[in-house]
């Protein structure tokens, strides 16, 4: 007899090993019952990271034979929730199967490969959940970074945005650990790293464009592939206009020798700058407040918030599929604009 | 009997007092013979800044009566060159009159209020100069900043540009010294401060986009007026595509609470960053070289280069009207795009 909920982790990638697993082990509302990966080897590698002092989960995989498939996890009564962290194109069918089995789902971002697939997923999920009473949450750990959460709460006090710039620049080299998975090297979906990582920067940017008048309305972008090993594109540069007519830029490159992780926003009543782990807030005419944050990726906070939302019976507002859809639309419209040499794209969902 | 050339300064504004006057006094090739301003009071104020040890120039103005007009300066045989630093809309007629009188001219940027007026000026100047043998140079002091000159020479070694960002953000408050002239408060020309100061940032950006393949080809921009006291616009955010297909952003605001003076460029073979007076060059895979420059506005270097060019009989390549025209086009195409909600504009002159 236990008061915890049984949870399974679906996926055995780097992020599962480094972030989801410790977050689940840390969460007092959960007990980890199962791990699934495509290969037993990968599931075992993940399980090997669990301290001996903790009850060990059962392992499932495509190559484990009868009674050890993904469907078998979904039939377990002692598992009420699953975290799904698979390659982008595999996600929707795994999500729908889990929801159909009545399991609550936390699925990794992006919600799907494109807005159209995401809308189909949301429609299917709504239909399924109305009968199974399961819930779908989409993970976006950047909304749980303490730095961005603080910046978002400050942004809400500063009124109309005047102008802004977002600069996330780095170079994914061929020996990068995130690069060394086939699905990332030869992406069969738009944007490559600019989709996979880009939705994070979209989410962060949207946190700083709070309030109806600050919502992004129109975007135009140029895209480019500057590094041969980063198809289909590795660089996007966009201009954005908000509902109130303010303007800003969004720059993201996975193929740049420059290094930047910066959000700089000027509002009616002050400015907010995020650079790395440092957040600087300065009211107009007032003094700078500088806050240094410890580097954390927010996954522990995210998993804890999700567990609590299951207890509460209501998806956390920071984890709704609609938020994830808007993040996806934020970058997809840039890709579309870039494909069309900078055509004007209107945001519909934000 | 002297080996120096007689020069006159036309204008009595802040920049004349703070920069042109000391630059001329410092230049061994020149002797200052005359100062002209609209009012004698202003000409006198400028002259008051000249040390007693230096021969005092004659003063000319619109309110000084017979023999003391601008035309009277142009008739003096002991004056061979004039520096013209008047409000933007006044410049062309003063320039043409001086060239007609056979005087060499260094005229302040922007070359004119728009590309069309600049082309007319250049055509007129060519026609006039072919008979009078005078020469027309357009001032752009940023090309003589030691920091930008160094960055430009480094940029030329780094190959194809991959991506870039330019961020020049500040707030012109109503009590700003540059704001307190009628022609700047109620500009009768495009762009306001974004033209007047913007051509500097255009020139600096073009220095870092050296080589044919790196030339800006296409631009799209959103413009906005966020501060009531800064008509017609105070903010431009643009995306630029180069001949080779690389992309970058150009941000300029005179109405932002953010402060930035930054050029960040990634090329095939390394990066260059200019932030304030600091230039950082980093070859790909190599170490950063950081150079700190003393703050200077380059006007002494600019005036000395111009004087030397007169001696040499050939306009300095950094001071040709064509360079100034390209700087003007760089920003004008952004304003046009902004007026048309981000329409695609092709650069023709760069």
Automatic annotation (TrEMBL), chains A, B:
Domain Gfo/Idh/MocA-like oxidoreductase N-terminal, residue spans: 6-126
Gene3D superfamilies per the UniProt record, alphabetical: Dihydrodipicolinate Reductase, domain 2 (3.30.360.10), NAD(P)-binding Rossmann-like Domain (3.40.50.720)
Recorded superkingdom: Eukaryota
GO cellular component, one term: cytoplasm
GO molecular function terms listed in the Swiss-Prot or TrEMBL record: nucleotide binding; oxidoreductase activity
Start and end residues of each GFO/IDH/MocA-like oxidoreductase domain: 154-272
Record's signal peptide: none
GO biological process assignments: NADPH regeneration
Family listed: Belongs to the Gfo/Idh/MocA family.
Name under which the protein is recorded: Gfo/Idh/MocA-like oxidoreductase N-terminal domain-containing protein
Native organism: Hypocrea virens (strain Gv29-8 / FGSC 10586)
């Amino acid at each position: 007899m236990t008061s915890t909920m049984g949870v399974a982790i679906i996926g055995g990638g780097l992020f599962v090993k480094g972030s989801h697993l410790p977050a689940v082990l840390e969460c007092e509302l959960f007990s980890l019952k199962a791990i699934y990966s495509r290969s037993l080897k990968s599931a075992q590698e993940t399980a090997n990271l669990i301290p001996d002092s903790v009850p060990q989960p059962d392992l499932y995989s495509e190559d484990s034979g009868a009674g050890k498939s993904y469907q078998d996890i979904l039939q377990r009564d002692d598992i009420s929730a699953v975290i799904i962290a698979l390659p982008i194109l595999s996600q929707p069918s795994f999500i729908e199967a889990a929801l159909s089995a009545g399991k609550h789902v936390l699925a990794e971002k992006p919600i799907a490969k494109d807005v159209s697939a995401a809308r189909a997923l949301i429609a299917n999920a709504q239909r399924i959940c109305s009968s199974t009473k399961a819930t779908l949450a989409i993970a976006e750990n950047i909304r749980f970074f303490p730095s961005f959460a603080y910046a978002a709460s400050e942004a809400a006090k500063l009124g109309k945005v005047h102008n802004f710039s977002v600069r996330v620049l780095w170079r994914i080299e061929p020996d990068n650990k995130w690069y060394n998975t086939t699905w990332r090297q030869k992406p069969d979906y738009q944007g490559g790293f600019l989709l996979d990582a880009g939705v994070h920067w979209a989410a962060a940017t949207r946190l700083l464009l709070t309030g109806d008048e600050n919502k992004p309305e129109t975007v135009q972008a140029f895209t480019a592939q500057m590094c041969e090993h980063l198809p289909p594109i590795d660089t996007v540069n966009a201009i954005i206009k908000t509902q109130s007519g303010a303007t800003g830029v969004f720059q993201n490159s996975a193929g740049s020798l420059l290094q930047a992780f910066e959000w700089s926003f000027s509002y009616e009543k002050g400015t907010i700058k995020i650079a790395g782990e440092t957040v600087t807030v300065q009211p107009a005419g007032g003094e700078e407040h500088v806050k240094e944050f410890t580097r954390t990726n927010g996954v522990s906070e995210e998993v804890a918030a999700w567990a609590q939302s299951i207890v509460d019976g209501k998806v956390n507002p920071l984890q709704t599929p609609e938020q994830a859809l808007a993040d996806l639309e934020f970058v997809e419209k840039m890709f579309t604009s870039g494909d069309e040499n900078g055509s004007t794209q209107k945001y519909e969902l934000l």
